[in-house]
């Protein structure tokens, strides 16, 4: 039997944040969510999360993750104290306990698999992950012999100068035999620089402690401050971009672009500089996005160009051009072959295939048929100060420049709206509607008084 416990009760003092450390985001997911998902492969029988600082907020964030048992650590007196809180919950448990620090988010599932299988085959009481770091500042140092047997772990702040020169560091990821650990946990002491109970002290107390050194030290980066958060973000972004480049996506300037794990891209997509994808995005083949664009929780068909624009919670068909400087907002649904031009905002509206909104428009709460041509400066006046109302425009209709369509209003098929009109009444199919003051011209005005 395997139980996984994630330590997530700490405040994260060094982050200097109102947010508990484990809720800091990294490429669109929180640290604790990443740690939990790195162990999901193992299909553990029990999954426990030790919460303490802002426990409710952490629990709330993970409310939709099924099968988690929350264990409260109050107050927080160190990593050993955190694991002591598991004793009642795991009273009758037999098997291994995998302990994961909640601030080590880049671990690969394969690395955790390797740790658990080495632990099972060696018969040690605990096996921990280690890494050899060029700059081990801040990490606990692991003292081990050439056979991989660990004698002790000494925290950076408790190390002598000589001990600090040891580059073998503790990653904060351990596989314990629970019964052996449960026996030594009550014996931990606070005899250290921080006056805390350290989980790392259990390795000296257990009969046999071993370690597994990771090949890629980047995986075990622990996040204690904003600099480390930024370094991990950079590493994760690089992993994501490399993955998509291997899948046929081109980046003109990779380092200037960010992705999230929920993104998928077709073949021959070109991502121009300063372009960002957040949340869940599906991007079809042959799209060209950027420069300077943001796409968030959106889907784009094939052959879509997005130039200097923002596309959020919107869906776009095939062969569409967006921008420059367009804003697609939530529930914008843009059909195949549409064109959304400069300074155009579209919200909660459906645009049928081949429709064009080329310049300076607001289209909100509207339903446009196919091949509608929305003239420059056309506005759907959707809000009466209390409620939002719908504008409908039928197929093959055109609005003249600077039209205001006051919703609720229905414009039929093949309608032409005269430029500068304010339309407040429905317009039947095939009509011309003009709603503006008649022009008055006073000839000879310039030479009056001569
Ligand atoms: C810890 C290890 C150190 C290791 C490093 C790896 C100890 C004593 N030290 O140090 O050897 O090199 O991780 O990143 O374990 N937490 C609780 N309750 C507490 C204190 C902490 O749940 O009372 C949680 C934190 O939320 C965090 C994790 O435990 O997720 C680690 O705590 P942190 O304070 O970051 O330990 P480090 O100083 O990084
Ligand atoms: Mg830490």
What's the end-to-end separation, in Å? 105 Å
Query: Can you say what the CATH homologous superfamily of the largest domain is?
Result: Spore Coat Polysaccharide Biosynthesis Protein SpsA, Chain A
Mean pLDDT: 97
Q: Which structural class fits the helix and strand makeup?
A: alpha/beta
Per CATH, the architecture of the largest domain is: Alpha-Beta Complex
**Which fold name is given in CATH as the topology of the largest domain?**
Spore Coat Polysaccharide Biosynthesis Protein SpsA, Chain A
Envelope shape = elongated
Give the C-level CATH assignment of the largest domain: Alpha Beta
Number of domains: 2
The number of strands is 40
The share of residues in extended strands comes to 25-35%
- If you compute it from the alpha carbons, what radius of gyration comes out, rounded to the nearest whole angstrom? 31 Å
The number of distinct helices, counting runs of at least 4 residues, comes to 9
Helix proportion: 10-25%
């Amino acid at each position: 039997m395997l139980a996984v416990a994630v330590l997530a009760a700490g405040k994260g003092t060094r982050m200097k944040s109102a947010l508990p450390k484990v809720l800091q985001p990294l490429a669109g997911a929180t640290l604790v969510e990443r740690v939990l998902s790195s162990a999901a492969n193992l299909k553990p029988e029990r999954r426990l999360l030790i919460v303490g600082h802002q426990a409710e907020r952490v629990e709330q964030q993970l409310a939709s993750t099924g099968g988690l048992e929350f264990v409260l650590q109050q107050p927080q007196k160190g990593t050993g104290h955190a694991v002591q809180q598991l004793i009642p919950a795991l009273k009758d448990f037999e098997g291994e306990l995998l302990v994961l620090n909640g601030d080590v988010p880049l671990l690969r599932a394969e690395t955790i698999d390797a740790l658990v299988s080495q632990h099972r085959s060696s018969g040690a009481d605990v096996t921990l992950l280690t890494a050899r770091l060029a700059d081990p500042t801040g990490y606990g140092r692991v003292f081990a012999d050439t056979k991989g047997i660990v004698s002790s772990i000494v925290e950076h702040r408790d190390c002598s100068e000589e001990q600090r020169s040891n580059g073998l560091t503790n990653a904060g990821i351990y596989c314990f035999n629970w019964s052996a650990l449960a026996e030594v946990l009550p014996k931990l002491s606070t005899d250290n620089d921080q006056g805390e109970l350290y989980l790392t002290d259990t390795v000296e107390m257990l009969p046999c402690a071993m370690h597994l050194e990771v090949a890629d030290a980047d995986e075990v980066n622990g996040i204690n401050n904003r600099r480390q958060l930024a370094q991990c973000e950079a590493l994760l972004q690089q992993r994501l971009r490399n993955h998509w480049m291997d899948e046929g996506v081109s980046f003109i300037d990779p380092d200037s672009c960010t992705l999230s794990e929920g993104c998928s891209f077709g073949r021959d997509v070109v991502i121009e500089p300063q372009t960002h994808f957040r949340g869940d995005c599906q991007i079809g083949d042959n799209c060209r996005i950027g420069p300077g664009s943001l796409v968030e929780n959106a889907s784009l068909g094939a052959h879509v160009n997005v130039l200097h624009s923002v596309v959020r919670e919107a869906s776009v068909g095939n062969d569409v051009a967006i921008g420059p400087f367009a804003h697609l907002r939530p529930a914008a649904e843009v059909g195949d072959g549409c064109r959304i031009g400069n300074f155009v905002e579209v919200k909660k509206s459906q645009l049928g295939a081949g429709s064009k909104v080329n310049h300076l428009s607001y289209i909100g709460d509207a339903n446009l048929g196919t091949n509608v041509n929305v003239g420059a400066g056309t506005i759907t006046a959707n809000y009466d100060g209390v409620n939002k109302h719908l504008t409908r425009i039928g197929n093959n209709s055109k609005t003249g420049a600077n039209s205001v369509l006051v919703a609720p209003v229905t414009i039929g098929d093949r309608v032409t709206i005269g430029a500068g009109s304010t339309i407040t009444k429905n317009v039947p199919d095939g009509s011309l509607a003009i709603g503006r003051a008649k022009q008055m011209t006073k000839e000879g005005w310039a030479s009056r008084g001569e």
